[in-house]
Amino acid sequence: MAEADAPLLVERTDDDVVIATLRNGKVNALSNRVLGAIGDAAAEWAKDPPGAVVLTGGPKLFAAGADIDQFVASDEGADDAVTLVDTDAVRSIAQAFRRASRALEALPCAVLAEVSGYALGGGCELALAADLRIASERARFGQPEILLGIIPGGGGTQRLARLIGPSRAKDLVFTGRQVDASEALGMGLVNEVVPHDHLRQRTLELATSFACGPRRAVALSKLAISEGMEGTLERGLDVEEDAFAAVFSTSDAAIGVGSFQQHGPGQAHFSGR
Ligand code: COA
């Protein structure tokens, strides 16, 4: 039973999709406690992997970033300035993002970020740690840290540049401007934009299709793509070759290939093994 004030509400559907809902105040500010809950939950899921994970902020927004209150040691300072926390505390914030994001990326299943509204700063960075981003037409993305005089510390300078390219990433990070769902789609920041009222339906439909599909193939392709992005082409091709060899020992490969030969494409009933 989840605690009433738990910052992450976790449900598991009959189709074995985990729906993890952020719940922290008005804007789902990502405090170290919230990020710790994500990291802990992902570590649990890794022990008994679900068919897919949907990470959502609920129907209004995804998350408006790192908890800015955690940046402040004291509000006594000259003019508008405050006294910021010390370096150890700053690093612990970056490390909390890093642990949560890495735990999601390491899961052997698809992780979908369902973005209903704002995904700003750390909220955008957390969505970037998902494999796919499904956005409402009301969604807005951005890395507004520069407007606070700081920079993204939750992986934004790295994952955003890898996803949309360094030039577009520098535009968003240097200006702090927000992009709407349609611009985000155009730059490859999201995979799909859907009408707001259809967001959950579409996200679950996709997640369920992964959960009921050849799960080991999804997991192995995730591993090959993600690891391949981190190194040289040669190393990536090695990873792909290993994954390709491994997938042939799964039951679902035998089922999928056999079904194609008997009935043509797209007719297989996979076992998840
Ligand atoms: N951390 C902590 N609190 C935050 C927050 C954050 N990242 N973002 C918003 N809040 C708080 C606001 O201080 C406000 O608190 P209050 O009601 O106690 O005064 C509350 O959430 C609602 O925010 P508000 O700005 O009044 O709502 P809005 O609908 O006008 O705007 C946002 C929403 C998200 C666009 C706006 O709050 C915003 O730009 N937030 C900061 C985003 C950001 O810079 N993120 C990167 C952080 S490194």
Hetero groups bound?
A: coenzyme A
Strand content: 15-25%
Strand segment count: 11
Helix content: 40-55%
Note the main sheet.
6 strands, mixed
- How many helices? The count is 10
Per-chain topology:
Layout: E1 8-12, E2 17-22, H1 32-47, E3 52-56, E4 72-74, E5 83-84, H2 87-106, E6 110-115, E7 118-120, H3 122-128, E8 132-136, E9 140-142, H4 156-164, H5 166-175, E10 178-180, H6 181-186, E11 192-194, H7 199-211, H8 215-229, H9 233-247, H10 251-263
Parallel strand pairs: 2-3, 3-6, 6-8, 7-9, 8-11
Antiparallel strand pairs: 1-2, 4-5, 9-10
Helix pairs in contact: 1-2, 3-4, 4-5, 8-9
Bound molecules: coenzyme A.
Keywords: Isomerase, Lipid metabolism, Lyase
Family: Belongs to the enoyl-CoA hydratase/isomerase family.
GO molecular function: 3-hydroxyacyl-CoA dehydratase activity; isomerase activity
What can you see in these coordinates?
By secondary structure, this protein is α/β, with parallel strands linked by helices. Helix content is 45%, strand content 16%. It contains ten helices and eleven strands. A six-stranded mixed β-sheet has the order 1-2-3-6-8-11, with helices on both faces. A three-stranded mixed β-sheet has the order 7-9-10. Helix 3 (122-128) packs across helix 4 (156-164). Residues 26-27, 29, 64-69, 118, 120-121, 144-145, 148 line the site of coenzyme A. It is an enzyme of class 4 (lyase). Pfam families: ECH_1. InterPro entries: ClpP/crotonase-like_dom_sf (IPR029045), Enoyl-CoA_hyd/isom_CS (IPR018376), Enoyl-CoA_hydra/iso (IPR001753), Enoyl-CoA_hydra_C (IPR014748). Its EC number is 4.2.1.17.
